[in-house]
UniProtKB/TrEMBL annotation:
This is AsnC family transcriptional regulator. Keywords: DNA-binding, Transcription, Transcription regulation. It comes from Natronomonas aquatica. It comes from the Archaea. It holds the Pfam family HTH_AsnC-type. Gene3D superfamilies: Winged helix-like DNA-binding domain superfamily/Winged helix DNA-binding domain.
Length: 196
């Protein structure tokens, strides 16, 4: 896998601004044809750098409730069940886990009693405390500028650089830092297939 070049980074920046931008328009900016941009985007997707294309819905336009930022402090062992519960709740748009093990999420709540809404969501899950902050305005500006991408070797976890190897095994694309890691991975893969 070769390193990402300036054109790849520019394509990523343009897609981060507007994921629905036509490839021909991106090509005009970066000096490539639409099909060439499409090929690069597909390569970035196969490499796992682009995981998908999403939309950001302005729920205010849908009259879908009051925007709030909720921070929940959880005792050890409660984080995963709480995160799963929040992630699967309608109206919750972003879920974060803080470095100190707290849970933070942005939601639009239709409930008139926020305290009751939160207590209902966490019923059966122990919580230490929570705070709710009313959000006045939200701005989301994704950026890939200044970000370095590094692929990890599927065998040893080291960074894959321009001297690395790429292989498609059973339809899946894998990246390796060196030929010996590729060889070890393929050998282990064959042994596992033989046992199955």
């Amino acid at each position: 896998m070769r390193d990402l070049d300036e054109t790849d980074m520019e394509i990523l920046s343009l897609l981060a601004e507007n994921a629905r931008r036509p490839f021909s328009e991106i090509g005009d900016v970066v000096g490539l044809s639409g099909p060439a941009v499409s090929d690069r985007v597909e390569r970035l997707r196969e490499a796992g750098i682009i995981e998908g294309f999403t939309i950001e819905v302005d729920r205010a336009q849908l009259r879908a409730g009051v925007p709030v930022l909720v921070r929940v402090e959880l005792p050890t062992g409660s984080l995963e069940p709480a995160r799963e519960r929040v992630r699967d709740t309608d109206g919750v748009e972003h879920v974060f886990v803080t470095a100190d093990g707290g849970l933070l999420f942005y939601a639009r709540l239709e409930a008139r009693n926020v305290r009751q809404w939160i207590e209902t969501r966490f019923e059966g899950i122990e919580t230490a405390d929570y705070t709710v902050t009313l959000v006045d305005d939200v701005e989301w500006t994704p950026s890939v500028d200044g970000v370095e991408f590094a692929l990890a070797c599927a065998e040893c976890g080291n960074t894959v650089d321009s001297e690395g190897e790429t292989a498609r095994i059973d339809g899946e694309l894998y990246h390796f830092c060196c030929p010996s890691c590729l060889s070890r991975f393929e050998d282990r893969y064959r042994r596992l297939e033989e046992r199955a």
